[in-house]
Amino acid sequence: MRLLQFSTSHYCRKVRLALGYKKIPYEVENLTPGLHILRIKPLTGLTTTPVLLPEEAGQPEAIGDSTQILRFLETYRPEPPLIPPPPLAAEAAMLEDWLDESIGTATRFVYYHFRAGEGKSIDPSPISQLVIQVVRRQYGITPASVALAEQRLRLALAVLWERWHSHPFLVGNSLTVADIAAAALLSPLALVGSYRQDYPWLFDRIREVHSECSEPLPPGL
Ligand SMILES: N[C@@H](CCC(=O)N[C@@H](CS)C(=O)NCC(=O)O)C(=O)O
What we know:
This protein is mainly α. A four-stranded mixed beta sheet has the order 2-1-3-4, sandwiched between helices. It is built from nine helices and four strands, in the order E-H-E-H-E-E-H-H-H-H-H-H-H.
């Protein structure tokens, strides 16, 4: 099994967590942003990483999109499950989708804004700052859109706190796609001091999920 990824992408981290939880051996192929399209588009028709290549007879050639990849992994290796039985399956899927589509994006806005300003010293090299500027332009990351993203994260973290502070899992009684999505998609905030200070419980939980999935911790933790 081969994972085509950007090493720093939080969506790729989500897939690595799932692969680790299910103890599926895999290799990674790190792609260069920009050039990645040449490798990925012919395989999935999409331009985004992660892409999983099962490289096994009888399996699809390529699967794009982290949510689709986690669905595939669940049928490929059902144990231990990451999707709970109904009716909890729908709740886990809904949380995963919200975390992917809304919260993962909000994290990206806050993270790249931070890396271009207060967090510039993390890597002030011209190449890193160029990549950050390209990403900011690509996604329309401006002070106004960052303020909206911060507001969205405040609400999301209140929702996650309600579930996580009294119980280790967002849905049901074991780890699900919802916990994996939250742990991966919020992980870039570990480098942002204000989030580390205001939400210590979040980073404790991110550490625990990484340990359960045998995945190295994200930068900052
Ligand atoms: N919904 C997608 C989002 C993936 C995504 O946004 N990937 C980014 C990296 S974090 C990417 O590959 N961007 C490159 C591009 O859009 O060309 C998923 O869950 O896989």
